[in-house]
Amino acid sequence: SKVIALPPDVLDQYAGQYLLNDKPDARKATISRQDGHLVITFPFRPQPLVLEPISENEFDMPFTDGHFTFRKDAEGRVSGVLFRIGDSERDMKKVAQ
């Protein structure tokens, strides 16, 4: 997929913390903007991983088959992200700031 450029204000909508599962003690992944692109940091992997936009709400994880699809609620706020990698799929809810 072709990587596109997204403006910082669009990227900033996706920044925040996302629950890795729906259990009460779920750990969180953190998405933030660094140097004009999004990165995700998983609790089990201290090194942030770059996310490359291929559409306004879809991002690929380079060098993997990881794919993120963000979704918004009725008010247009980002509410979660669907993370697919290999055969696994994880629906990660965004934590209210």
- How many helix segments? 1
**Uncertain runs with pLDDT below 50, 5 residues or more?**
none
Q: How far apart are the first and last residues' alpha carbons, in Å?
A: 32 Å
What integer value in Å does the Rg equal? 13 Å
**How helical, in percent, are the residues?**
under 10%
Strand residues, percent: over 45%
Query: What is the overall pLDDT average?
Result: 94
- The ordered H/E elements are HEEEEEEEE
How many distinct beta strands? 8
> How would a crystallographer describe the biggest sheet?
8 strands, antiparallel
Shape: globular
Decide which structural class fits the backbone. Answer: mainly beta
Q: Order of strands across the widest beta sheet?
A: 1-2-3-4-5-6-7-8
Structure notes:
The chain has one helix spanning 8-14, and strands at 16-19, 28-34, 37-42, 45-53, 58-60, 67-72, 78-85, 88-93. The protein has 97 residues and is mainly β. Strands 1-2-3-4-5-6-7-8 form an eight-stranded antiparallel β-sheet.
Give keywords.
97 residues, mainly beta, 7% helix
Protein topology:
Elements: H1 8-14, E1 16-19, E2 28-34, E3 37-42, E4 45-53, E5 58-60, E6 67-72, E7 78-85, E8 88-93
Antiparallel strand pairs: 1-2, 2-3, 3-4, 4-5, 5-6, 6-7, 7-8
